[in-house]
Design brief:
By secondary structure, this protein is mostly helical. Helix 1 runs antiparallel to helix 3 and helix 1 runs parallel beside helix 4. The protein has one domain. The protein starts with 7 loop residues before the first helix and ends in a 23-residue tail after the last helix. The chain is built from six helices and no strands.
């Protein structure tokens, strides 16, 4: 007769396998979309915007998102490995919905330059992440706690986005010429 109960070693190995899938996946998706959208300090359009006083240095975003994406991937792993949990499927589905909304934000803000719309998108990300966290908590409390720093960061990011919107009402129409498009006048000929 085969015993269907996994040993503690088997459970740890299963967790490790899933973590080795989900943590890099979430991190790579997050940073890949950020790179694709041209987000960050090097974006010329972003450089031209007036910055709120609460704007952290550029390196802080990379550091914060690195930690948050790892924690999100671990939270997902905790839920996926919660075999037999009643709400596991719903929790995983909600996680990917909120992640898709999260990944749309840099495209919307930096790529499409929709500062006002990006604010409302962040509100939707927060609501989806909050609901995900509540359902995660019904599956495993640890998974919900791993999402709490992400929720806190989303609150900060939403306020920051709103400040950008208020300081830059014309952000959507702001045109910044490319380096190669600058017209240089030749000196007058004698």
């Amino acid at each position: 007769m085969i015993n269907e109960i996994a040993s503690p070693v088997q459970l740890r190995l299963a967790f490790l396998r899933w973590a080795l899938l989900f943590v890099p996946l979430v991190v790579l998706l997050g940073f890949g979309v950020s790179e694709f959208s041209g987000s960050g300090e090097d974006n010329r359009w972003f450089q031209a915007l007036q910055k709120p006083d609460s704007q952290p240095p550029g390196w802080a975003f990379g550091a914060a998102w690195s930690v948050l994406y790892v924690m999100m991937g671990l939270a997902l792993t905790v839920v996926v490995t919660a075999r037999g949990a009643r709400l596991r499927g719903l929790a995983v589905g909600l996680f990917f919905v909120q992640l898709a909304l999260n990944l749309a934000w840099p495209i919307y803000f930096f790529g499409m330059r929709q500062v006002s719309g990006a604010f409302y998108l962040l509100v939707a990300v927060f609501v989806a992440a909050f609901v995900t966290t509540l359902v995660f908590g019904r599956v495993r409390a640890l998974a919900a706690w791993l999402m709490v720093p992400y929720l806190a960061w989303l609150c900060f990011a939403t306020v920051l986005n709103k400040q950008f919107d208020m300081l830059n009402p014309d952000a959507e129409t702001l045109v910044v010429p490319r380096d190669g498009q600058r017209i240089q006048l030749a000196p007058p000929t004698p």
